């Protein structure tokens, strides 16, 4: 009899033929990708990059279609206006000596000039959208702290002038002839934006869920379009997860 100590099945190194054909016991093969634990976010959770012009148009579209005044974009607009100024100055220098330009260069300059005019138009349209809503709701935006926080200093000055003019006109034409107790404007008389207006939105990335009026919860898939109450997607719009269309 051999003096070699006996070994049990658990002491032996399993051969390749004894390993389970489905369960791989090789730890090096158990990767983060296999377990779904990678740090890289899913593609539908990433907002696609935008050019300066695309971002400007998005802010304008949101402001135009939202029932309330959105958070001001003063730093971004300053960047846009600086870009317009730089492009305009460069264009003037090149157009000062057009004889040395080829036909292709003339065409490129035409495209640059068109883009400059487009950005100027959108900047003015964006400002007009805000002014239109401030004209309607200036009392609300000056009296409500949360709403006032969305205004730039220029917006506040505009609302203050508008409020002074309207209240002076109202007092001289109507309120002056009423008893003193009827002259004060009470809170329920202040006109506010209707946040229950329905809007069309498109999800810039997968986000949600949002609470619908029917108490259902809805996830918004990337690039999906929805027709919902503005109040429902208000926070998503503020975060940049959706845009109005």
TrEMBL record:
InterPro entries per record? GINS_A, GINS_bundle-like_dom_sf, GINS_Sld5, SLD5_C, Sld5_GINS_A
Q: Predominant location of this chain?
A: nucleus
The record's listing under CDD domains reads: GINS_A_Sld5, GINS_B_Sld5
Coiled coil location: none
Q: Where in the cell is it found?
A: Nucleus
Q: Which domain of life is it from?
A: Eukaryota
Instruction: List the Pfam families.
Output: Sld5 (PF05916), SLD5_C (PF16922)
Region: Disordered; residue ranges are: 1-22
Sequence ranges of Polar residues compositional bias: 1-19
Q: Which SUPFAM superfamilies match?
A: GINS helical bundle-like, PriA/YqbF domain
Q: Where is the DNA replication complex GINS protein SLD5 C-terminal domain?
A: 193-245
A Gene Ontology biological process noted in the UniProt record is: DNA-templated DNA replication
Relate the protein's function as given in its record. Answer: The GINS complex plays an essential role in the initiation of DNA replication.
Tell me what this protein is called. DNA replication complex GINS protein SLD5
């Amino acid at each position: 009899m051999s003096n070699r100590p006996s070994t049990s099945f658990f002491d032996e190194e399993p051969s390749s033929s004894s390993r389970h054909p489905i369960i791989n016991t090789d730890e090096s093969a158990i990767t983060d990708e296999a377990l779904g634990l990678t740090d890289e976010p899913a593609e539908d959770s990433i907002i696609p990059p935008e050019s300066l012009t695309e971002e400007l148009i998005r802010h304008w579209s949101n402001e135009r279609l939202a029932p309330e005044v959105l958070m001001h974009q003063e730093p971004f607009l300053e960047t846009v206006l600086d870009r317009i100024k730089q492009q305009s100055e460069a264009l003037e220098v090149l157009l000062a000596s057009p004889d040395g330009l080829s036909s292709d260069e003339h065409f490129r300059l035409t495209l640059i000039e068109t883009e400059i005019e487009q950005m100027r138009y959108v900047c003015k349209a964006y400002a007009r959208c805000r002014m239109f809503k401030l004209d309607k709701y200036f009392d609300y935006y000056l009296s409500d702290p949360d709403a006032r926080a969305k205004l730039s200093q220029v917006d506040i000055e505009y609302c203050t002038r508008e409020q002074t003019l309207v209240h002076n006109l109202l007092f001289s034409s109507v309120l002056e002839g009423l008893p003193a107790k009827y002259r004060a404007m009470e809170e329920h008389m202040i006109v506010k934006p209707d946040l229950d207006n329905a809007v069309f939105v498109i999800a810039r990335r997968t986000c949600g869920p949002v609470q619908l009026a029917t108490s259902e919860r809805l996830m918004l898939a990337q690039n999906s379009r929805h027709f919902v109450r503005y109040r429902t997607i208000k926070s998503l719009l503020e975060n940049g997860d959706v845009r109005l269309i």
